[in-house]
Queue: 2 jobs
Job 1
Amino acid sequence: MHLIQVDSVQRWMEDLKLMTDCECMCILQSKPISIEKDEQNELILSSQYSTCDNLQLLLKRAWIISTELTRIAQKLEKNRWQRVHSMTVRVNCHVRSMINEYNSFTKSSSEEMHQLEKLLIDKCSEFTAFTERCLQTEDEEILKSMKSCVNETLTTVAQYFGQLIEVVLTHEAQNLLRQIELSGSLYITESAISSLFSLAQEGAHLCHIIAKEGGVVALFKICRQDCFRCLYPQTLRTLASICCVEEGMHQLEKVDGILCLADILTDNSHSEATHAEAAAVIAQITSPHLTFTQHLSSFLENMEEIVTALVKLCQEASSGEVFLLASAALANITFFDTMACEILLQLNAMKILLAACSDKRIVDTPYSRDQVVTILANMSVLDQCASEIIQGNGVQLLIEMLFEKSSSGNPAEVAACERVQQKSAVTLARLSRDPEVADVAVKLSCIPRLIKLCRSPTERNNSDSVLVACLAALRRLAVMNPDGLENSDFQQLVKPRLVDSFLLCTNMEESFV
């Protein structure tokens, strides 16, 4: 869950109330306090919040329980029985609180859910009693024999807990999808889609549940109704999240989702925001990191019009974010099918992308430059690409990208800068088979920069992939212009086998004198 990836103090502040309530509930044995019947118990945190807030509360409580169960297993391994028992009591309270909270806001629950709740509560009570008996026993042999039973009970608690959470989340996904499908109200539909998006952000498992329950089908149904046009961006954003899992992709194929996306992208009456979110879905489903895109046969049928629309979106983008989404989709498509590169060449995409890079308002981050240089690298395998690059001052841009540095030190940004350096070197290596490109690169002092990246680990952020790409580019330029290197550089970086030069550069120690 993404809840883990936050500042630890912030995490503690958010959990503090939950923990405090847990202690209160422990003392009061889960009995609610209220003076009047219509007053909501303050200890039940999910009072008058929205469905989205309630689901977030449920997921937070579930995360805490899951973490506690893991810690119990660790303490049990070390035979720290006092800690095991106190943590077991705490889990017992959290489980009861979670069930009370959920039942206070859910409109309906199944018989299966009630049975699982009872099983889990009973097993937690049994677990607490068991660990209490262990606490009162000092005989090591008896404790050793009881330990396996405690482990078995802990496993059963974890299984019941997992099953209950699965049923609850499935139930909530079904409720939200029912609202989307049956409600004609714009407000209710928007609220349900927002809650669905929040669920999808919690990870691949939640996306799988939503897709399995028909989430992709319901959302594409919204995207085919003009009365919900104002909800298209939000709906498409949710679709992009769900389609990170295989089940989501299968559902997209079944409902002709590619055709729907193509229609949206080519319809000029839609807003730029809608086009951008449609591009985000395309970027998701064509991601080279996914292993289950092979079945998207319908994508090839609509590829030319999708690529055309994406190039137009890049050209007319009013912000860096829109350009990033459109260029990311194009970059992924160039991996997805080689025919895309030929289509891009016919559409003068090279010229459009190079022009965009000179506009700092549009291409304003290493992430955007990463997408552009990815497209250039994949297009550079075409022979016709060289003249386009020269005409658009592309060689100069690629050399500038060799100087890409992170301004913030953020790990994601640093990684993006490394990719930009690596891909620009790869592109230069590929294009330099053309003597004209190689000549331009040499005149623009490409060789000294490549040597610097090879010899100075800090310049490439100690990246081996950047080093390999730079060595390859340097060797290609050395073939085309052997007089451009000093003898020492030639002997160390060009003449040996690539692997020997690589090892030499990775073992170099920088002088700090």
Note: The two ends are 47 Å apart (CA to CA).
Job 2
Amino acid sequence: AGPGQVAMYAGLQELGVANGEDLKETLTNCTEPLKAIEQFQTENGVLLPSLQSALPFLDLHGTPRLEFHQSVFDELREKLLERVSAIALEGKVEERYKKLEDLLEKSFSLVKMPSIQPVVMCVMKHLPKVPEKKLKLVMADKDLYKACAVEVKRQIWQDNQALFGDEVSPLLKQYILEKENILFSNDISVLHNFFSPSPKTRRQGEVVQKLTQMIGKNVKLYDMVLQFLRTLFLRTRNVHYCTLRAELLMSLHDLEISEICTVDPCHKFTWCLDACIREKFVDNKRARELQGFLDGVKKGQEQVLGDLSMILCDPFAINTLALSTIRHLQDLVGQDTLPRESPDLLLLLRMLSLGQGAWDMIDSQVFKEPKMEAELITKFLPMLMSFVVDDHTFNVDQKLPSEEKGPIPYPSTIPEAFTKFLQENRIACEIGLYYILHITKQRNKNAFLRLLPALVETFSDLAFSDIFLHLLTGNLTLLGDEFALEEFCTSLFDGFFLTACSRKENVHRHVLRLLLHLHHKVAPAKLESLQKALEPTKQSGEAVKELYNQLTEKLELRKPSPAEVTETPSMELPLPTVPTPTSR
């Protein structure tokens, strides 16, 4: 008998049930094999008196005994599985689990027998606490571990963090990869970008759903996943782990898993913020609610700020807070109000500050809200408002009948303080970048070219981060026609993108993405020099080379073939008339 045969009968002997090995032995040591087989069939067949007379009838129809026994077996197994599931729901809790434990004790020795295994697994699945000894046996056997239900695996995982980590790790890698693929997608659009999917849609993603299922209602496993996310965020500074932290909590919220939601102190805050992210705006009512949660952090519970800051560091939260800030600033211009006089604006800054300080807080384990720099509110934001005023003034000037002095030029200089803020203050930099995205989306070329030089050096190179460049490239499609102008291209490419291409591979990728989309709008001479400047080096990664090859192919297709070029003059001769079929 091969290993497969042995597995088929695994554990029968322990229960005193004859198996294939016993039959082999009987036949080897007997003088009359046929009689021995008949006796074996009688002793081990289905012991129903009425069946004895019916079996020869099946023989007449040519139905093998194996087929008959197999169908009886399958039928009985189905009934047993139904019965196990029913026992798990009936009677008093202690009694039903006692029945299942007894059943497990009797059947566990057959767990490796493929035909019986589903029954044993079903019994374990319905037991809230499988005996430790049995769990260890399952854990030690790769095939058994693979075959057991997630309900049993949870019981194994909760005491084996390393094993749980091995299961979760590939999912987390997949999640980060999916996010990066969206940021570097070749589809560039102002309508469909990284932030377009609603929170509810995002939570339906494969990784979030799998993690939600693995956790079930188990608080211990939920805590382990949060610990993994915190550790990875600290190790990599990758903000997508913060997104997953919020998505996971809200996925459990959708399923109404109160066992976990009620013990996560961030639940209500995240739920409220989730509604803001859905609307891409923090309205006054929700602002009050969020403020209430922040003000309600009691002494001795400051550690919750670490979790709240991670929820606020989620790019989807930052995006919502920054967009709301820009909207508030515009409203304040219309109301002749200063930023310091707007409590709603101050709250948005407070949350931005908490989100942007997440890494430092979790790293230092000092749980207190970061101090807001007064100059951000008294100098930087009024400066942004003055840019909005400059645009209004310029637009009004354009409409006035021009005097002899000629049209007033658009202001071309930027205050030195603006550039300094973008370099030294993280919150100022984030808001400044969102303001630039805002004017680009408004197709405001003048304002864009005026502020662009300030982006070459920013706090922690934020202007060269993937999320900003993803959004900027999308918004630049609205200024497509400007790419035909030398001045615009020189400012954008030579003055901004190319300053970082050689030292930052991601910037190289984003420029190539943009050109793949807009190459037909760029002036031919400029396109040629860009093609040279963007040629990959030996150090360039596969993604850059692939994008560059795609661009080269597209440009080759646009070039007229040499034959066409030489024949051009002959086109000036009168064309011979070709008779159409009907005129014959």
Note: Confidence is low (pLDDT under 50) at residues 565-576.
